[in-house]
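Lecture notes, continued. The same structure-token format from the folding unit now serves as the input rather than the output. Read the line below as a description of shape only.
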């Protein structure tokens, strides 16, 4: 028992020392982003060396979902994190430290509800009493709740099973769930294995922006780094526009999807570095829906929680 207490004390001392070292001026930016089709711009910025071009030392941290990126940002393991709108709203409603500094992708139809090819289900209304896999806390989750409401279904009318994207297809094939909702490339990967789309989560007034959040407390007196960071992201956005075929090949390698399927999945997205009024309006609508669903306790203070001052 004494040894265990010593180990815990040592771990705490090391953690505190690392935190103090960071506070003392570690300029490395720890960047959490997703290995998803929506992450073209951050993936290009890393793989093509655009952060280095801007004189930045960036430590990339790849995750399979927005909540995982949010966890890294919330815990202090990351300085910047990319996530969908629902996750971003939850983060900004929790703490004023987290500020949305850009959107790097959007796409009304990038989230889809998938079923087995032989499933008798034909509409969302048919999901009453069925088991639906979804990663809770994601933008897909928020979109699914809105779609269920549109179909006159409450969350209590279905069984929502919290699954990571990588396990959804296996669960569907095994019959553990009747359907799943996910963002690309998971639906396209499922189509490769014979699944079919029940519906997209489009048509709900949401553009589903994918957002970059900064922990501003980590950038005191380092605001210039955020500007250079977004300048590198802008380089990546330009590269995606001017080199679409190479970008698709890079994303196919990242996701493991065949190139034609990757290109079709990418076509469901808009890749642009912005914080325009459409995104702001979409975020506010999402926040008000989540508040009504009691998923958040208060609306974010958008005057503080959104800042376009770092955009090129």
């Amino acid at each position: 028992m004494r040894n265990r207490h010593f180990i815990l004390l040592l771990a705490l001392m090391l953690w505190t020392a690392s935190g103090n070292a960071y506070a003392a001026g570690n300029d490395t930016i720890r960047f959490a982003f997703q290995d998803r089709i929506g992450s073209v711009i951050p993936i290009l910025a890393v793989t093509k060396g655009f952060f280095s071009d801007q004189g930045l030392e960036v430590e990339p941290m790849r995750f399979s979902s927005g909540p995982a990126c949010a966890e890294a940002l919330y815990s202090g393991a990351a300085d910047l994190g990319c996530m969908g709108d629902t996750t971003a709203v939850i983060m900004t409603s929790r703490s004023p430290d987290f500020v949305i500094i850009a959107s790097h992708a959007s796409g009304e139809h990038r989230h889809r509800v998938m079923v087995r090819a032989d499933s008798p289900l034909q509409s969302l209304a048919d999901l009453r009493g069925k088991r639906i896999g979804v990663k809770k806390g994601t933008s897909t989750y928020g979109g699914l709740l809105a779609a269920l409401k549109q179909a006159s279904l409450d969350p209590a009318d279905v069984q929502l099973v919290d699954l990571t994207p990588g396990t959804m297809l296996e669960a569907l094939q095994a019959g553990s769930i009747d359907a799943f909702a996910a963002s690309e490339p998971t639906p396209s990967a499922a189509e490769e294995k014979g699944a079919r789309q029940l519906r997209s989560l489009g048509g709900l007034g949401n553009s589903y922006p994918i957002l970059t959040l900064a922990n501003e407390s980590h950038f005191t007196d380092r605001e210039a780094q955020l500007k250079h960071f977004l300048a590198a992201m802008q380089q990546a956005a330009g590269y995606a526009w001017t080199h679409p075929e190479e970008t698709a090949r890079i994303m196919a390698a990242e996701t493991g999807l065949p190139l034609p399927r990757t290109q079709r999945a990418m076509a469901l997205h808009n890749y642009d570095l912005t914080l325009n009024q459409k995104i702001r309006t979409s975020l506010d609508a999402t926040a008000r829906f989540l508040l009504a669903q009691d998923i958040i306790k208060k609306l974010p203070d958008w005057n503080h929680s959104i800042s376009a001052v770092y955009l090129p």
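Point for the exam: The longest helix spans residues 2-23.
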